[in-house]
């Protein structure tokens, strides 16, 4: 029984560590994602003088309307349509992240995950998502977010719980501010300022 449990834990550890591979020249190197490579990387942490601080700024385009929405509803509760906060609605997103707020601005990645209306008193979303970077020196790296987004507040603070690639062992804060919101379509462009500590 102990042998089976140990084997299972080693397999889970290998899978998790493989997902945390380092980038090479901004790309993920498939030859450097083995458990041994990750173990070597962890051993080097003891010699790291200090963590890095990275600041990012980009725009998140959440489009519910038109022929090519970037966010779609996948579920709702039987009380959602009667709720002033749309309590119980769940959307899945693959929203582009861009350098500027314009729809044709350069895409640097996407926000992939889901958000759900989790408050009956105000419009407060539970957001669980990854910022997946596809351009520049962060290409192939991700940041993972889990937090509450009270969308009608001017600033919303979302915790960064981890990351991969350049952002291994990341922790930090993503501050969201609505740039534009269309009350008819539900489309929104949100400005993000991210500050993150990582190795």
UniProtKB/TrEMBL annotation:
It is found in: Secreted, Extracellular space, Apoplast. Coiled coil: none annotated. InterPro entries: Allene_oxi_cyc_Dirigent, Dirigent. Transmembrane segments: none annotated. Residues 1-26 form the signal peptide. One of its GO terms (cellular component) is apoplast. Keywords: Apoplast, Secreted, Signal. It comes from the Eukaryota. GO terms for biological process: phenylpropanoid biosynthetic process. Belongs to the plant dirigent protein family. Dirigent proteins impart stereoselectivity on the phenoxy radical-coupling reaction, yielding optically active lignans from two molecules of coniferyl alcohol in the biosynthesis of lignans, flavonolignans, and alkaloids and thus plays a central role in plant secondary metabolism. Homodimer. This is Dirigent protein. It comes from Coffea canephora.
